[in-house]
């Protein structure tokens, strides 16, 4: 079965995470992705380990690289040479999409910038990803940790009396990859209608600000400067992690009906009619008092007991799983989190986009450097 993006060719000059995540999602949906890498070392993340896994070709591969590079081929090109740039242009000449995340100005200095390549292929879609934009922030390296720090994300992450904390994955890179794919798909749709290509610009800093949605808007619209609250929510109570008899439990009580069901299940039903807790706004104003009354009830049983009881009552709640527990739990709710790749390669996490007629496919493992065998959907 042809994928939704069958016959779309992507010349992928990106490396590390944001760009490669976007192009992997596209490759899963049928696009031919040609990954252009430095000779000798390739993508930086090839060496970002441990952990490493056997790539089943007689070498070790960092799991970081493996996580975002399936279904691609690899071409090693030295873009500092005429021969390397000429080879890159040959790939672009048959491509629909170019994506790159070099420092601003690098592709232009190589003669591979948007103006150069659109002269070669007028309907080209060119997606450039930077850390802090193409102008005054161009000199600042665009690493996810810096973005989390400077965007304010770390200032709202962690415990109130602790140091700022980064999210446990390069979340801004991942979100930027999703935004990049959305922009590319929109541009392809525009090209289908008009025949016109276009340039797409994304910077991680803007994605971080946009992705903090309610927190950013609270500042812009109400002048609030949010701060770290641990697992608490600034506008919903109880919406946080609380201790039980054995391990912590996440409670996400989003409305008054759910709150009544919560306290009834915890055998403290009078709290629903307490003037301090009748509405969500009341509960936000009296957060500490409410938590003090919930803790003894939660201490009667463990997290798994409360998960079962509260779920049955229609109250959003769940234990804090580690990665192994999360993968195991997925299967208990008929979500298969992994898929097998060909050639006995290490299992990979499943593409979360479910499509009834053109589902994601998993055709080839992440390529070794210069391995062109990953392209199995090239144009005739």
UniProtKB/TrEMBL annotation:
Pfam families: CoA_transf_3. Residues 339-380 are annotated as: Disordered. Keywords: Transferase. It comes from the Bacteria. The keyword Transferase applies. The keyword Transferase applies. InterPro entries: CoA-transferase_III_domain, CoA-Trfase_fam_III, CoA-Trfase_III_dom3_sf, CoA-Trfase_III_dom_1_sf. This is Crotonobetainyl-CoA:carnitine CoA-transferase CaiB. It comes from Williamsia serinedens.
């Amino acid at each position: 079965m042809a994928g939704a993006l069958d016959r779309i060719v992507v010349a992928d000059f990106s490396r590390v995470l944001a760009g490669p995540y976007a192009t992997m999602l596209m490759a899963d949906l049928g696009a031919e992705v040609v990954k252009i890498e430095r000779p000798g070392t390739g993508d930086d993340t090839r060496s970002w380990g441990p952990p490493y896994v056997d790539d089943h070709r007689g070498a070790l591969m960092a799991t970081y690289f493996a996580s975002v590079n399936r279904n691609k081929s690899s071409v090693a090109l030295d873009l500092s040479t005429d021969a390397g740039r000429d080879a890159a242009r040959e790939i672009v000449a048959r491509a629909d999409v170019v994506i790159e995340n070099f420092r601003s100005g690098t592709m232009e200095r190589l003669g591979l910038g948007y103006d150069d390549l659109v002269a070669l292929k007028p309907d080209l879609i060119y997606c450039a990803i930077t850390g802090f934009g193409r102008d005054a922030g161009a000199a600042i390296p665009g690493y996810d940790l810096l973005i989390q720090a400077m965007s304010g994300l770390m200032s709202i992450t962690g415990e109130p009396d602790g140091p700022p904390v980064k999210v446990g994955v390069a979340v801004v890179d991942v979100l930027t990859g999703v935004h990049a794919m959305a922009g590319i798909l929109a541009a392809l749709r525009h090209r289908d209608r008009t025949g016109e290509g276009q340039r797409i610009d994304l910077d991680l800093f803007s994605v971080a600000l946009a992705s903090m949605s309610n927190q950013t808007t609270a500042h812009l619209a109400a002048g609030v400067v949010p701060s770290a609250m641990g697992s608490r929510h600034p506008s919903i109570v109880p919406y946080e992690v609380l201790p039980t008899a054995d391990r912590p439990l996440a409670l996400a009580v989003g409305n008054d009906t759910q709150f009544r069901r919560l306290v009834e299940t915890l055998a403290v039903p009078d709290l629903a009619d307490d003037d301090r807790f009748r509405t969500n706004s009341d509960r936000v104003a009296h957060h500490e008092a409410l938590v003090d009354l919930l803790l003894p009830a939660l201490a009667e049983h463990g997290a798994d007991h409360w998960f079962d009881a509260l779920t049955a009552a229609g109250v959003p709640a769940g234990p804090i799983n580690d990665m192994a527990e999360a993968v195991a739990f997925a299967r208990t709710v008929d979500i298969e989190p992994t898929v097998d790749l060909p050639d006995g390669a290490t299992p990979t996490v499943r593409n979360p986009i479910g499509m009834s007629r053109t589902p994601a496919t998993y055709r080839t493992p992440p390529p070794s450097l210069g391995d062109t065998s990953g392209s199995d959907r090239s144009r005739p």
